[in-house]
Specification:
The model has no long low-confidence stretch (mean pLDDT 92). By secondary structure, the chain is mainly beta. It is 0% helix and 62% strand. It has strands at 6-8, 13-15, 25-36, 42-54, 57-61, 67-71, 75-87, 96-110, 117-118, 126-136, 141-150, 153-157, 160-166, 169-178, 184-190, 197-204, 213-221, 226-232. The strands form four sheets. Strands 3, 4, 7, 8, 9, 10, 11, 14, 15 and 18 form a ten-stranded antiparallel sheet that branches. Strands 12-13-16-17 form a four-stranded antiparallel sheet, with no helix packed on it. Strand 8 (96-110) and strand 9 form a beta hairpin. The two termini are 41 Å apart. It is globular.
């Protein structure tokens, strides 16, 4: 899609392709530390990283005066990842595992439309991920859930500035039961609390640099729960 023109129905715009794109070049620097406590009951890993990107690919002004995907110069990504896993036998939940991940991202690029430093489009500064799984082998049963929370995300194009706010999102809750013939039955509920998002969008006449506002939209998005029952076996 970076090379050909496509219709963006959400923004009601045309995204022009760019056959002259060149690949991004990235210097990546990473250092990580992992520590496991006695009996592997708790494990913690921290990774610190710094990326420097040249020929960064993003929305841009093209040489023919149109807008589309282009190489806009340099960009940076810095931050860290924290991962922690804990077995819950110490509180009586044997064969249960709780995992937590926190990601911090600080990004920067030179915005091609206002020529100002700004974060890279659609990358939140903060991201939280939770995962819980409990195996009950004596009952042939497994249940669990996973959830996440994204921070505020922004996006800028030649005629648009958008700020997206995300709610706490439980991706799924599930339970699995294995019969004696290795038939596995799984019931899951996806988006049980709805995947709620808010979009605050400002549209500009012709060019965001002219600061002439066309309209402002306040959107809300709720994804209703989905229920699924599946059966799986091996032959």
């Amino acid at each position: 899609r970076n090379f050909i023109a496509t219709r963006n129905t959400e923004d009601d715009t045309i995204d022009f392709g760019n056959p002259d794109l060149v690949p991004e070049k990235i210097w990546q620097y990473q250092v990580a530390y992992e520590h496991r406590f006695d009996d592997d009951s708790v494990a913690i890993e921290v990774e610190i990283f710094s990326d420097k990107i040249t020929d960064f690919i993003s929305e841009a002004r093209l040489l023919d005066g149109s807008t589309g995907i282009g190489n806009i110069g340099t960009a940076t990504r810095k931050g860290f990842n924290l991962e922690a896993n804990s077995k819950l036998a110490m509180i009586g939940l044997h064969d249960a595992l709780l995992s937590f991940t926190y990601q911090r991202r600080k990004t920067e690029m030179l915005g091609p439309f206002l020529n100002l430093e700004r974060p890279i489009n659609s990358i939140p500064e903060n991201y939280y991920l939770f995962d819980y799984r409990h195996d009950l082998p004596e009952l042939n049963l497994v249940y669990g859930l996973n959830a996440h929370k994204r921070g505020v995300m922004s996006r800028q194009d030649v005629t648009l500035y958008e700020v997206r706010t995300n709610g706490f999102h439980i991706s799924e809750i599930f339970v699995e039961y294995t019969l004696e013939n290795d038939l596995k039955l799984r019931f899951e509920v996806r988006n049980p609390l709805k995947d709620r998002k808010r979009f605050d969008r400002t549209f500009y006449l012709d060019d965001i640099a002219d600061d002439m506002i066309d309209r402002v939209e306040y959107r809300r998005s709720d994804v209703r729960p989905t229920y699924a029952l599946t059966a799986q076996t091996a032959f």
